[in-house]
Amino acid sequence: MKMKMALTTAAVQVASSSPLGRAPSRFSPSSMKTRSFQDLSIEISSQPLVSPSGRFSGLSHRRPSPTAINLNCHGLAQRNDKSPATYDNPKSSILIQEENQRLNDSERGVITAFVDESKRPRRQRPPNLVIPQTSTSVAPFVKLEEELHKEMYGQGRNYSVACKKGRREVMEDAFRATTDISGNSTTAFFGVFDGHGGRMAADFAAERLGQYIVDELGQGEGDLEKAVRTAYLTTDEAFSKKKISSGACCVTTLIRDGRMVVANAGDCRAVLSRNGIAEALTCDHRLEREDERQRIQDLGGYVDCHNGVWRAQGVLAVSRSIGDIHMKEWLSAEPEMKKLNITSDCEFLILASDGLWDKVSNEEAVAIARPFCVEKEETTTRLCERSLMAACRKLVEVAVSRGSKDDVTVMIADLVNFSS
Known about the structure:
Structural class: alpha+beta
Shape: globular
């Protein structure tokens, strides 16, 4: 309760020797209003201020006014007579008198009004404060910083890979490399997967697609193209059952006994260096392709061009992918494939997501990577792996320096050891 008192006299003294003033036992703070009489005004806040001791905040005791104030539950009532203040509840005055007797001399300059216990506003317990658990160490913040600028590298026998996260919160690219399949050094699987709408589809495809191919081959399937096609469709069907609205573009290569099958669904790309000449082994599934636009329209979908970008149903810029269950009526997981023999002029194969190809042409990619790779036969195997890694990192660096905001994943496979 906040009160403001104004007197016309030049000086105001506290009458410490006068009897303690009395206050009513019942009142409704919300119903109180401001009344002015003579030269004295009292403002009473509509919100009670409850002190820690359980009493209402006191008022400084001033010189008695010729006008008495009667506080009751119905508001402020002005009395023009000079009779003492009356109380609606006699019991309350007894409580006040008893409390006043307990006050020491230093407190007698303060009028303290007590309210009947049954009428006093109650303090309510605040809700429990839930404090999230945080670490006081620096490590979590360092890890967060690493996530914001995430780079991943990997290498193995005859391949290396480098990844750099773009401006998204999560890296949506994934990759897979498996060599010496079933103990056969001439059999290998390489793949790059570019997710959209999250990384779930990319992770799923990276984990399952190569395994489905191996399973097909293990069942005696000698047709490599058929095994790859079946694996793509099986991966798409298995992921669609999860009812997750995520998708992934894929580019893969299966190598076996000097033969290679390159497949893609989406805009990830495979480029071969044949004696230093760039040769694209895949064709991007984007809606700039008239045949892809026509295929979607024949299925009852529509495509439109906005700001120079063609999109299916106004959403996706690719026409084929793994997943994308909400677009499955029009998008296809059917891969396009190319089969060729690995000859002595086949130097290396670049598999990359569109984060690279949107900024670096096929010819530039081969020209940048080749100096790191062509002299590898004159070095040790370890130096060869380092050369492949240096080539991958250089391509990622060039794409980023040219303004790529997308995730960038580059994998280079050395084909010399797989040639027939």
